[in-house]
């Protein structure tokens, strides 16, 4: 900093203000400082900065499952949102079924000096492990179906109700549910939304077939759907819906002429399934923005940032009236 200040003809305090985007630095002064930094190859030492300011400007991410589309998409969105707010991220991963691993991952993030932690926790077991910890930085959780006082989520039950409503409005009365794994909080909420919408319309629940989020489990479920006589299926994610479309096709059934299908997530490929998949879209970018805002804002974070994010039905070509 001393070399940069000398070359730019300013004080070290001015260099520090430029580095911290202080609003009271004149534009021409800022340009001289930035030019001097470029000429000297100056790079800010974040470790030294953290010692001086007692702030790391780093947000921790604890993920208990990053393999599925929703959690992985959220992690990428958190990193983008954090950078937009002037923060970096440090990530740690832990097996949801191993409480000791969750504790170790939290300890690792705290040791990095993170200013807050986003826990991507689709499993109840991760939340149970967190409840036993005394964490001295702000914490928010994603993909926990809104459980807990700092649980942020897309409204999963509302999304499921949108999916079922689309099928019921098309005239279907026997609507099956291809559910996600029982140990996932969002799978539980989507199943609850499916049942609630059927009940509100006075319709009897169709069969529930449990999958594992994979296209393979959706493909295998085609047999049970056919044997149950369902005319429509709400699949708890788009990957299972993809497998179901394939399995129904191989069984000689046409979608949507014989069976209508609605998915959940709106993965980028959903618009290119055959037929193009009607599904429920989750706004992962907005969810990440709210998570970062809740951490950066601390106790002053807007209450609206803690509210559930509204899902959106994306209508395509996989729903039609029953024969």
UniProtKB/TrEMBL annotation:
SUPFAM superfamilies recorded: lambda repressor-like DNA-binding domains, Periplasmic binding protein-like I
UniProt xrefs under Pfam families: LacI (PF00356), Peripla_BP_3 (PF13377)
InterPro entries per UniProt: HTH_LacI, LacI/GalR-like_sensor, Lambda_DNA-bd_dom_sf, Peripla_BP_I
GO molecular function term, any single one: DNA-binding transcription factor activity
Gene3D superfamilies according to UniProt: 3.40.50.2300, lambda repressor-like DNA-binding domains
Keywords: DNA-binding, Transcription, Transcription regulation
Boundaries of every HTH lacI-type domain copy: 1-53
This protein's name: Lactose operon repressor
Organism field: Microbacterium hydrocarbonoxydans
């Amino acid at each position: 900093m001393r070399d940069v200040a000398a070359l730019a003809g300013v004080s070290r305090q001015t260099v520090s203000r430029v580095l911290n985007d202080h609003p009271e630095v004149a534009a021409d002064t800022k340009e001289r400082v930035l030019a001097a930094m470029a000429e000297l190859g100056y790079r800010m030492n974040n470790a030294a900065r953290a010692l001086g300011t007692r702030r790391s400007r780093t947000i921790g991410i604890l993920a208990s499952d990053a393999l599925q589309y929703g959690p992985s998409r959220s992690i990428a969105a958190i990193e983008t949102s954090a950078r937009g707010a002037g923060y970096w991220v440090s990530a740690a991963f832990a097996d949801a079924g191993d409480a000791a691993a969750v504790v170790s991952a939290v300890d690792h993030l705290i040791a990095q000096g993170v200013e807050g932690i986003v826990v991507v926790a689709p499993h109840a077991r991760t939340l149970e492990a967190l409840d036993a910890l005394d964490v001295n930085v702000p914490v928010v959780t994603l993909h926990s179906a809104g459980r807990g006082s700092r649980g942020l989520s897309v409204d999963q039950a509302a999304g499921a109700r949108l999916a079922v409503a689309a099928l019921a409005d098309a005239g279907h009365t026997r609507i099956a549910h291809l559910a996600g794994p029982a140990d996932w909080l969002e799978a539980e909420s989507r199943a609850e939304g499916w049942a609630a919408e059927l009940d509100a319309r006075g319709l009897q629940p169709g069969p529930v077939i449990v999958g594992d989020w994979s296209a393979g489990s959706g493909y295998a479920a085609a047999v049970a759907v056919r044997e149950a006589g369902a005319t429509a299926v709400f699949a708890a994610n788009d990957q299972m819906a993809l497998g179901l479309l394939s399995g129904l096709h191989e069984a000689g059934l046409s979608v949507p002429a014989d069976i209508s299908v609605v998915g959940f997530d709106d993965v980028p490929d959903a618009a290119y399934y055959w037929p193009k998949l009607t599904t429920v879209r989750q706004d992962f970018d907005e969810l990440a923005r709210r998570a970062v805002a809740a951490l950066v804002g601390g106790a002053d974070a807007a209450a609206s940032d803690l509210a559930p994010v509204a899902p959106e039905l994306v209508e395509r070509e996989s729903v039609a009236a029953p024969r």
